[in-house]
Every structure is written in structure tokens, then in C-alpha cells.
Amino acid sequence: xxxxxxxxxxxxxxxxxxxxxxxxxxxxxxxxxxxxxxxxxxxxxxxxxxxxxxxxxxxxxxxxxxxxxxxxxxxxxxxxxxxxxxxxxxxxxxxxxxxxxxxxxxxxxxxxxxxxxxxxxxxxxxxxxxxxxxxxxxxxxxxxxxxxx
Length: 149
Prior knowledge:
Layout: E1 12-18, E2 32-33, E3 36-37, H1 38-47, E4 54-59, H2 62-68, E5 75-77, H3 85-93, E6 100-103, H4 113-125
Parallel strand pairs: 1-4, 1-6, 4-5
Antiparallel strand pairs: 2-3
């Protein structure tokens, strides 16, 4: 997805780092969820964010590229040796002219597009901000020690 940006409005690139080589669940990002690869759900939700002008999936494996090919999504192959998704997103960001970069985790198929917009808003309002992150208050104390939360 790529949209024309009116003059004076910053371009916002959302990068979805999609790592096939997940330690606990290899291939998780392309595992079927409601009939589609999981990362496709994340991509569609990210495209629905009103402040995002372009969305790119950053892949580490050709199987991710192949799984998304039928959907016409822009997928960029990145180096396989990245330590984190942020590193993978940074590789793609380095080739972009966008003023703002948003890193959306591939395994967030239910992310609310309004959450993405809310993360972008402070950076549009304050050019001194270099980075923002989304948080969610933990109300269930068992989640504090759960490595899956």
C-alpha cells in the first residue's frame, strides 16, 4: 500500500518485520489464521490506519515472500542475520524517504488501526520526538511473569 501524500503532510512508512525463523513457532507469520497468513491480517489492519501512507513487509525468508505474493503486497527481503525485528525494520527504513517510520509487529493480527494512529500522533505534533512506543496497562498480575504477554 502506498498513497499520495498532500504537500506539508509527512510521509509515514509502516514496516512489518516478518521473521519466518521464529524460535518457538517457525513460520508463525505465515501460519493460516481465518484462511489468510497471519501477517496479512496485520498488514490489512496497518493499512487501515489513517496516518500511514505506505506499508511494507520486511521478510527474512523467501517463504514469506511467496506466501504474500498472491496478495500484491510490497515485501522487501532483508538480511537473515538481524537480531531483532527493529533491526529488520531499520534496514527497510534506511532506503525510504519517509519522514516517520512505524514498526508494527507481524504477530499482531488484531491490532487496532487507531492504536497505530495514536502512536504516530505525538510525532506529528512534536518534531523533537525521535521515537514513541505503544503501551498497554497490565491489570492481571499473572501477566507480569508470563513470557508470552
